Amino acid sequence: MTGESSPRRYFDNAATSWPKAPSVAPATHAWLEGITASPGRGAYHEVGRAAAVMARCRQGLCSLIGGGDPNQIVLTLNCTDALSLAIEGTARSARRQGRAVHIVTTDMDHNSVLRPLRDLEADGVRSTRVPADPVTGLVDPRDVAAAVTKDTRLVAINHGSNVSGSIQPLAEIGAACRRAGVPLLVDAAQTIGHRDVDVDSMGIDLLAFPGHKGLLGPLGTGGLWIRPGHTADLAPVRLGGTGSRSELDVQPTTMPDRYESGSHNMPGIVGLDAALQWILSEDPDTVYRRDSELTAFMLERLLMVDTVSVLGPTDPDHRCGVFSVVTDTCTPAQLAERMEAHHGILGRHGIHCAPAAHRTFGTLQAGGAFRLSIGPMTTLEDVEAAVDGLAQATSCTSRVAVPA
Ligand SMILES: Cc1ncc(COP(=O)(O)O)c(C=O)c1O
C-alpha cells in the first residue's frame, strides 16, 4: 500500500498536537470574525470580552496544575519562551543582586534549556549538567542534589523527555531542591495534558509549558507559572507596554503584567481557552489515564518488533507516549521517508533539539532516531498501523553505506 492510499496518521504530537480539541477551530474562527480587541487596551465592551477570555484561560491552566492564583500564570509564545524567561530572568535577578549564578540541569534537557545556559556563560553564569542513565534516560535525584553548590540559583529539569519519553522522578527532585533551598524549574513540554502535573506535590517553583502540544491549543501559545513570592528572584526579560500603569516609564510590578509586555496572541489564547474547556469537560484524570494506557499498549507492541530498538524505559510507569526507535536496517531519515511514503505514518527523525540526550543513548553520531509520539486523539488503530508499518519498513536491509 502506498502513502497515497493509506490514511495519514499523525504521530508528531511531541512537536505539536493534531488534531486540536474540536472546540478550537470554531472558537478561533468566531473570534477572528468579530471585533478583535486587545485586552487591557481600552475600556469598550470588546476589550472586556477579550480580558474575560484571557482570565478564563489562566483559570483553566491553573486548575490543571493546582496553581492557585490564575495571575501567577504568564502567557508566553511557546514553552521555549517560558523557559527563556525563567532562566534568563533568574540569572539577571541574581546578577543584579551581585550574586554569582550557577544553574543545574541535565543531559536529558532540550536545547531551549541548554542554549540559554550556554549563551549566559558569556555573562559569567556557570552550569552543571547531571548525567542520565544511558538505557532508561532517568536521572538520579541524588545526583541532582550533589550538583547543587552554594551559588546554585535554579535547578532546571524536564519532566518527560522528548526523545525517550523518560519521566523524571520530580517529587524526589523537588524534595531535594526544597532541602537545598534552591528553586525548581520544570519543563513540562511533553507531559502537560498527558500526565498529572501538580506544582505543590512536585515541589515546583516555576513551571514552563506549551499550549500547543498536550493541551491541544494552537501554535504560538504557552505559559510560565510562577510560585507566589518568587517574583523577587525573577527579573522580567521582555519589557514594554502592558496597557496598565501607562503613566509610568518603568515596568509594573503587578502580576502578570510584570512579565507580559506587548500585545497578546489573542487568536491563540482564544483557541487555548477553548481547548482547556474541552479538556476540563472530558475530565483531566480520564484524559491522563487513557494516555497512560495507550502508552503502555504502544510500548508493549514496539518491544515486540525485533528489528528496532526502543530508546528509554521499558517500564511504562516511567515514561510518556514519546517513542524513539533505531534500527540496523536503515537510517532514521530513511525510516521516516518509508513510514510516510508506504504507510502514511508521520513521525520525526533526527536529533529532536536534544543533543545531550542523544549522546546519552549513543545515537547522536548516527543521526539520532525516528520518533513516534501520541496525543489525546491517537487511537488504538493508529498505534496498530504505526507498529505494523514500522515492522515492515525495517524488515529489509537497505541501509545506505556511507562512502569512505
Ligand atoms: C522537552 C521540550 N522542551 C521544550 C520544548 C520547546 O517547546 P516549544 O515548541 O513550545 O517552544 C520542546 C519542544 O518540542 C520540548 O520537547
Explain what this protein looks like in three dimensions:
The chain is built from eleven helices and 13 strands. By secondary structure, the chain is α/β, with parallel strands linked by helices. It folds into two domains: 9-21 and 284-393, Aspartate Aminotransferase, domain 1 (Alpha-Beta Complex), CATH 3.90.1150; 24-281, Type I PLP-dependent aspartate aminotransferase-like (Major domain) (Aspartate Aminotransferase, domain 2). The longest helix is centred in the first third of the chain and has 21 residues, at 45-65. Pyridoxal-5'-phosphate (PLP) binds next to helix 3.
Nutshell version of this structure?
This protein has eleven helices and 13 strands. With 404 residues, the chain is of the alpha/beta class. α4 (111-120) links the parallel β3 and β4 (126-130).
The largest sheet, given as strand count, sense and whether it forms a barrel, is:
7 strands, mixed
Order of helices and strands: EHHEHEHEHEHEEEHHEEHEEHEH
Task: Quickly give the structural class.
Answer: alpha/beta
Name of the CATH architecture of the largest domain:
3-Layer(aba) Sandwich
In helices, the fraction of residues equals: 25-40%
**CATH C-level of the largest domain:** Alpha Beta
Radius of gyration: 22 Å
Low-confidence stretches: 400-404
Total of domains: 2
Distinct bound molecules? pyridoxal-5'-phosphate
Q: Under CATH, the topology of the largest domain is which?
A: Aspartate Aminotransferase, domain 2
The oligomeric state is single chain
| Strand portion | 5-15%
Average per-residue pLDDT, rounded, comes to 96
